[in-house]
Amino acid sequence: MSAASRPSQAPADEAGAEDHSERLAVLGRVAGRILSIVLTLLGLLLLTFTMGRLLPADPVLAITGAEVNKATYDRVYQELGLDRPVWEQFLTYLGKVLRGDLGVSATTGHSVLTDLAHVFPATLELAMVAVVTGVLIGVPLGIVAAVNRGKPIDHVARIIGLAGHSVPIFWLGLMALLLFYAKLHWVDASGRLSVFYEGMMEPVTGLLLLDTAMARDWDMFRDVVSHIALPGLLLGYYSVAYISRMTRSFVLEQLNQEYVVAARAKGLSTFQIVWRHVFKNIRVQLLTIVALTLGGLLDGAVLIETVFGWPGLGQYLTRGLTMNDMNVVMGAVLLTGTLFVTINLITDRLYKVLDARTR
Amino acid sequence: MRHIWAAGLALALLASTATAPQAASPPNMLVIGTDLSAVPSLDPAAINARTVSEVVSNLYDNLVQIAPNDMQTIRPMLAESWTVSPDKRTITFTMRKGAVFASGNPITAEDAAWSIRRVIKMAQVGSTDVALWGYTPENVDKFIRATDERTLVVELPEPVATDLVIYSLAGSSLGIIDSKVALKNEKNGDLARDWLKGNAAPSGPFSLIQWRPNDILITESRANYWAGAPAMKRVIMRHVPESGSLRLQLMAGDIDVAQYVGAGDLEALAKEKVVIDQVPGFGFYYIALNTKDPDLAKPLVRRAFQHVLDWKALAQTSMRFAGYPWQSIIPKGMVGAPANPLPGYEYDPALAKKLLAEAGYPNGLKKKLFPSGPALLQNTEALQASAKLAGIELELVPGEHTPDFRARNFEVLMGNSGARLPDPFGTAVQYAYNPDNRDAAKLGAYYLWRVAQEAPELTKMVDQSKAETDPAKRKALFEDMDKRYREMDPGLIVLFQRTDPYVIRANVKGYFGHQTWSTRWASVTKE
Prior knowledge:
The complex is a heterodimer of chains A (359) and B (527). Chain A has 359 residues and is mostly helical. Chain A has two domains: 1-39; 112-358, MetI-like (MetI-like fold, Orthogonal Bundle). Chain A has helices at residues 5-54, 59-64, 70-79, 86-98, 112-147, 152-166, 169-183, 208-214, 218-255, 258-265, 270-298, 302-307, 313-322, 326-354. Chain A is globular. Chain A starts with a helix and ends in a 5-residue tail after the last helix. The relative contact order of chain A is 0.13. Chain B is an alpha+beta fold and 527 residues long. Chain B folds into three domains: 1-57 and 204-273 and 506-527, Periplasmic binding protein-like II (D-Maltodextrin-Binding Protein, domain 2, 3-Layer(aba) Sandwich); 61-194, Dipeptide-binding Protein, domain 1 (Alpha-Beta Complex); 280-499, Dipeptide-binding Protein, Domain 3 (Dipeptide-binding Protein, domain 3, Roll). Chain B has helices at residues 2-17, 50-59, 109-122, 140-143, 162-169, 179-184, 193-198, 243-252, 263-269, 299-305, 311-316, 349-358, 377-388, 402-406, 424-431, 447-450, 456-467, 471-487; strands at 29-34, 64-66, 74-76, 79-84, 90-95, 144-148, 151-155, 206-212, 216-221, 234-239, 257-259, 274-289, 323-325, 365-371, 392-396, 412-416, 492-505, 508-509, 525-526. In chain B, helix 10 runs antiparallel to helix 12 (349-358) and helix 17 packs antiparallel against helix 18 (471-487). The model of chain B is unreliable at 1-22 (pLDDT under 50). At the A-B interface, helix 2, helix 3, helix 5, helix 7 and helix 9 of A face helix 1, strand 1, strand 8, strand 10 and helix 8 of B.
C-alpha cells in the first residue's frame, strides 16, 4: 500500500470501523438482553424452588395418600430425590430443564411438558377472548367517559367498569351460570367441549376455536363457542374496568394539550379530534395496558377456571401448589415467566413501530 | 378502529349462533361430575383414593367381589369358585371359563397370579392391605402361583383368617390385568408401571377411551365382557371442581351423578327430586391428642376433651351429609360393633372443667389446634368455640396438617380417616395398633402411633383378630377391643363415622356407591 493512497482510503476505513462497532454494539445489546432474560428466569426458578422447600406440606403424601406405610413412603421419598441435599436437587432440576425435561407431575402422572401443552392452549384461548372483549368494551367506554367528563354518561361508564372489577368474579360466574346456563339454556356450563364431541377431533393447535374452524366442523365450532362464551366474556368484563379507567385518563391528559385546543380552533369536531389525533397519541400507552392485561390473564384465571371447569394453567398451577407438586409449580412458573418476558419484548418492538421517538 | 368494531361484531355474531346446549345426557351414557384433580395413575397397584378406585373397579374385574348392599358376603367374579384347605393356609381359586380381556386374550390363572404378585412387588399404596398378610416382593412368587390355566393357588405366609385375605382380593388395587398386553408395554423391567399409568389392559366391563387429568375420563362398554355388555355404552367422568356449578349441571341433566358436592349445595339438593345416597365409609372423624405433650399425656385431660365438642350441633350442620354420630372404632353394622351407637361422650363443658381441675388445671388449658386439611376447618372452628366454654383455649392454625400428624408434630388435631377393607380389622389396625412407639419407628400408617400412645394389650388383640377364624371368638375379640380402647382414654376421640354422599338423578337406576369405593357401573340403567 502506497503512502499516497492512504488519505483517500481513510473515510472507507472509518465507515467500516463504524459499521463494525455498531454491529458489536447491537450484538452486545442482544447478548445483554439474553443474559438478563436467562438471569430473570433463573432467579425466578431459584426463588420458587426455595419457597417450595420452605412450605410445610409433604410432596410424598400428595402421591401416596396419608395412610401409606413406612416402606412405601421411604421408597417414594427416594424416588422424588428428597433424600438429596436441596442445592443438589435444584442443580439436578436445572440440568433437566436445560435438556427440555420439566419432570413428571406427581398429581397427574404425566410429564409437566405434556400437561402444559394441554393446559396452556386452553388458557391462551380464554385470555384472547377476554382481552378482545376487554379492549372492545373498555377502550370505547374510556374514550366516551373522557369526552363526557363529569356528565351522567361518565358516571354510568364508571359504574359499568367498576362493577366488573369489584364484584367477586367467582360470584359473578355462578350468577351468570344460573341465568345463561340453567335458566336461559344459552350456553354450556363446564369444560371446553361437550362430552359428545370428545375424542372426535385430533387437536392441531390446541386452540379449539381455531382447530374446529380449520376443520370446517361448524357444529363443533358452535359447541366450542357455547363453552367459551361465558368465561371469556366474564373475564373480559373483569378487565374492562382497568382498561376503561386507564383509557379515560390517557384521553383526558391529551384533551388538555395545546394541539387539541388548536384543532378545536380549526373547527374539528370532538369525534375527529379523538380518532384522528388523540387516539394516535395514546396508542403506546394503550398497548402497555393491553399487554399487562394479557400477561395477567395468561397466568390463568383460577377462579373463573374453577367455576367453569376450564382445564387451564391457573387450575393446574393452583392444584400443584396445594398438593405441593413442585415439578408442576416450577414448570408453570417457568412458562409464566417466559411469557411475561416475551410479551415485554413484543411490546417493546411494537413501541418502536408505533412511536418514532423510541426508535 | 374500524377493524376492532368489525371484530366485535363478528364475536357477537358468533355468540348468537352458539347452539343451545344439550338438555340432558343421552339414555345410554352416564356422566359423573367429580374431582379428577388428584389422579396421578390409573394403575391398580398405585392407587388408594376414592375416585380412582371407582374408575379402576370398572376397568378391571377382581377374582371376587362384595355387593354394595351386603358387605359380609363374598361373591364370585373372575373366580367361579374357591376352596380353603383344612389347615386354612391355602386358598385355591378356579377361574371363570370363557372370560376374556378387552384384547380378546383369555383370562387365565397366570394373569391373576401375575397381577397380584405385581402389586406386592411394586410395593406402592395398592399393596397396603394385602401386604398385611405377610407377602413380600421376595416371597410372593412362592406363595401365589397358577398351577394350570384355570387354577390359582394362594398360600398364606402366616396364619391369617382366610376371609380377610379374600376380602382384600376384592379391593380395587387387586384388579386382574391382561398380562400379555401389559408386558408388551414393559420398559426396563418396570412391570408396565409407566404404561399402565395412563393406559389400561382391562378385564372389566369398560375400556378406557380417553383420559386427561384435571379434565375428563371416558370409558366405553365392552361387547365381549363375560357378563354381557353393560347398558351404558359410555361412562364419562368430568372434572367439575366447583360445587355450585356441579349442582346446576346435575339439575339441568348434563350430569347424572355428582360426587364431592359441598354441604350447602347438598342442603339445597335435598329439597329436589334427586337421590342423595349417603354411603357409610370405613373411617371416622376424630379429635387427636398428642400424648407426647406433657399435658395431653394425662388421662384426665384426654377425658376432658371427650366432653368439649358440641357434636350434636355439628351433626345438624357441617356433618349432616358427611357422617353420623358414632363413638366406636368398629364401624356400624360390622362384627363387634356396638348396638347402641352413642355410648358415651356427651358435650358437657362443666364436666370437662371439673376433670381439668382434677388433673391440675383449674384455670384451664391452652393448646394449638390443627385441622388435618382445609375440609376440616369448619369442624375445628366449632371445637374451638365449644372448648372455650370448658376453659380450653385453642389457637386454630389453618392449613394442610396431615404431614404434621404423621410426624407427631402437633398438639390437638381434627381429621378423618378411610379404609377399604370391609372388616373391623381394617379400622382396628389403624386406631388400636402400635407395635413400636419410638419416634424412629416412623409408623405413620397407624394412628395410635401418631398420637404416641402405647397400647401393648390392644396391639396384641389386633394381631389375634387377624388370625382368628372362629366367628364368635372374633366378635368377642372386637367387642373387648372396643371396650378397652375406650377405657384407656384414647388419644383419638372418635365422634362420627364418615359417609360419602353421592347425588344421583332420579332417572338413574342401579348406581350404588360402594363402601370400599369399588362402585361399579355395569348395573346402571337410565329411565
